[in-house]
C-alpha cells in the first residue's frame, strides 16, 4: 500500500497545459475519487499515477519516493480502464495471469493467485472463456481481477462503471467499495458521475480545467461547496442558482427582495431542490411542469426570481400544474456565493420572504 | 437480402417494378466488372486450354489436336524439376525474408517512431514500388555491375578492401532475384501491417505496460496476435503474385545464367516466346492456373479467408 503525493505537478501536451499546478496528498489505504467534467484533467492525473504519462514538471511521490521517471511496469499499480482493455486473444485465465508473467512468479503459485483473484470477483467459472464471450459486467470483473492479482500498492479505476447498465452499476459500486475495504489498497477512482464518487469514495477531489476546485468528504462537497462550480456539479437534480444584488441586509432580484445576512455586493444564492418545500410563506410562483421521479416529484415553478425546481418526497403529486404556490426553506440550508469570484461566503444565509 | 429501403420500395411500387429495378441495378453495378473478368480472365483461360491440346508452334499453324504437350510435361522435360525447385526457393525465400518478415519489422519499427520520421522511412521503402520496373532494374544492374564501377563493387573494394570485383549476376543470381523482388514486396506488407497496428486500441498497450510488459513483450503479446489476420492475407496474396510474376527476373538476369534463375512463370514465357513452343507453353501455363486456384482455395480453408470477405460488423461503443 502506498501514500501518494502530487507536488506542483504540471502536465503539458505540446503547447496545451492540461494540468497547471497540482498538489494533493492521498493517504495510505484511502479511497479517493477524482471527479469532474470531461477534459478537466482527471484521467491525465490517473495516467500519470499509472506511469503511462510522464509529468512535465513537479514531483510525483509514492511513499516519499519520487516516481516521475519510474516506468509503468516498475510501479506495481493495477488499473481498470473504461473499456476494460482485456487482451482479446487470451482466455480469461491468461488475462488475469498476464501481470504475473513478468514477475517471474512460479507457475503453481501464479495459477493459485489467478484462482484467488477470480474467486474474489466471482469469475472463477469463466476462466476458459475469451473476453468476447463475456458480458460487460463479467469483463469488468475480469479487468478488476487482472488489476488485483499482482497485489498492487495502488489501484486505479478509470470510469470503471460507465459502460455498465444502471442495475449492474449499482451492484458493482457496492462490490468495488467492499473489495477495497477488505484489501485496504489505496484506490483512485476517476469519474464524471457524482453519484459514483459520493457513494464509493472516502474523499472527493473535484477538478475543473486542470485545477482542484475542492477536496473533501462527500458531505463537505454537498453541504459546504467551496465554489459555484462544485455546488452545481454535486447534487441531483441540480441546485437552483439565483443571481442578485445584496445591499443593506436584503437581496434584490428582478424587483423581488428577500433578507440576507453576512453578504453584500453581487451574490448568487444557491438553494437545493430537496431543501425547498411548499408552504404558507416564501417565494410565490405557479407550477409549470411536474416531473415524477419514482419516490420523489420534481416541480418546476416559475417565480418572480426565475425558474425554481422543488423536490418533494412521495410518489404522487400533491399539487397540479398551474397551481399558485409559495416556496419556503430553512435559512441554514441556503448557500450564498460571491458572484465575482464564484466562491462560497461562509456563514452567509438568506431567508425566505415573509 | 432486402433492406428497409427495398421493402419500402416494394410497398410503394409492387413486386414487379422492384424486381426490374433490382435487375437493372445488378447490370449497372456488376456488369462492367463481369465483362472485364470474362474478357481478361475466363476467355484467356479457355483459349489457353484449347491451345494446350494442339501442336501450335513457330509456324503458327495448327495441324491437329493432340495430347503430346502433356506427355512432354510428365515424361520428357528434364528441366521442369529444377525449375519447380527454384520457384519454391524463390517464392518461399522472398516471402519469408522480405514480404512478411521484413515488412513486419518495418511496420513495427516505423509505428514506434515519432509520426514524421516513421512516415519518412515508410516513404523511402515505398520508392521501389513506385518506380517503373524497367528503371528499377536498370538501377540494380548498375549496382551489381561486374565492373569496378558497380556500386556494390565500389563499396566492397574501397570500403572493405576487396581485391577483384565481384560478378554477382553469375555468382549469386538467386539471392539477387530474391533481394530485388523483396525490396519491392516488403512495402505492401509494411503498409498493411502499419494500418493494422494503428487499428489496435491504444489502451491495450497501456494496460500491458502497467501489467509489466516491456517493448518486446508488448510486440509479442499485443501487436503480433492482432496481426494474425493481415499476415495470413499478405502471405496468400504475395504467394500468388510471386508465382505468376517474372518481369523483374526477366529484366535482371533473363532467367540466366543458363536456366539458373528461370522460375516457373518465366519458364512458360521462355518456352512459348523464345523457343516458339506455343502449345507447350499453354500446357505449362495451365498448371500455373491450377496451382493458383489450389493455393487460393488452400488459403481460404487454412487461413479462414472467408472471414476477410464477410460484411464488416459495425461496432458500437
TrEMBL record, chain A:
InterPro entries: AAA+_ATPase (IPR003593), ABC_transporter-like_ATP-bd (IPR003439), ABC_transporter-like_CS (IPR017871), ABC_transpr_MalK-like (IPR015855), ABC_transpr_MalK/UgpC-like (IPR047641), Mo/tungstate-bd_C_term_dom (IPR008995), NA-bd_OB-fold (IPR012340), P-loop_NTPase (IPR027417). GO terms for biological process: carbohydrate transport. PROSITE patterns: ABC_TRANSPORTER_1, ABC_TRANSPORTER_2. It is found in: Cell inner membrane. Gene3D superfamilies: 2.40.50.100, Nucleic acid-binding proteins (2.40.50.140), P-loop containing nucleotide triphosphate hydrolases (3.40.50.300). Its main location: membrane. Pfam families: ABC_tran (PF00005), TOBE_2 (PF08402). CDD domains: ABC_MalK_N (cd03301). GO terms for cellular component: ATP-binding cassette (ABC) transporter complex, substrate-binding subunit-containing. It is a peripheral membrane protein. One of its GO terms (molecular function) is ATP hydrolysis activity. Keywords: ATP-binding, Nucleotide-binding, Transport. Residues 4-234 form the ABC transporter domain. Belongs to the ABC transporter superfamily. This is ABC transporter ATP-binding protein. It comes from Allomesorhizobium camelthorni. The lineage of its organism: Bacteria, Pseudomonadati, Pseudomonadota, Alphaproteobacteria, Hyphomicrobiales.
UniProtKB/TrEMBL annotation, chain B:
GO terms for cellular component: plasma membrane. It is a multi-pass membrane protein. It is found in: Cell membrane. It comes from the Bacteria. The chain crosses the membrane at residues 26-47, 88-113, 172-197, 229-251, 278-303. The keyword Cell membrane applies. Residues 85-299 form the ABC transmembrane type-1 domain. PROSITE patterns: ABC_TM1. The keyword Transcription regulation does not apply. Keywords: Cell membrane, Membrane, Transmembrane, Transmembrane helix, Transport. GO terms for biological process: transmembrane transport. It holds the Pfam family BPD_transp_1. Belongs to the binding-protein-dependent transport system permease family. This is Sugar ABC transporter permease. It comes from Allomesorhizobium camelthorni.
